[in-house]
Amino acid sequence: MKTIILKGRPAFGGIAGGEALVCPDSIAGNTGSLGETDGIIYEHGNPNRGKCIKDTILVLPCAKGSCGWSCHFKSAKINGNAPAGWVVTIIDSRIGVAIASLEKPAVCDFAEADPVKIIKTGDWVKIDGSTGIVEITPK
Hints:
There is one protein chain. This protein has helices at 69-78, 93-102, 115-118, and strands at 4-7, 9-12, 15-22, 57-60, 85-88, 106-108, 124-128, 133-137. The chain is α/β, with parallel strands linked by helices. The chain has a single domain, classed as Phosphohistidine domain (Glucose Oxidase, domain 1, 3-Layer(bba) Sandwich), CATH 3.50.30.10. An eight-stranded mixed sheet has the order 1-8-7-3-4-5-6-2, covered by helices on one side. Strand 5, helix 2 (93-102) and strand 6 form a beta-alpha-beta unit. Helix 1 (69-78) packs parallel to helix 2 (93-102). This is Aconitase X swivel domain protein. InterPro entries: PMDh-S-like_dom (IPR002840). Keywords: Lyase. Residues 34-103 form the Phosphomevalonate dehydratase small subunit-like domain.
């Protein structure tokens, strides 16, 4: 398989790799959408309902819902269920706080291509949060 390279803006330094978990409509920030102790997505209508974010490269278009959005991800991290890294089409304050509090590599703000449309769940993704380079190996 041919590797696809995307370039975004570095958001949090470091290198991470893992299987992509793509949530095309993000994950809702209301209580109960993301399991704070098990990292499982419980949001009704989310195509990844029942999947765990642990050790994945979480691919989101943006944050969604409550301003407490980042707290659910921080709780999942405290319980050992953090993603390995983040790829975010457009960053906002909610997701910026989540990225900073989880201290995981992140790349955001893609001007030339939307990673949510290019990356598929299950693809292998390596991100460099210091350079903004995202390498995608389709499954």
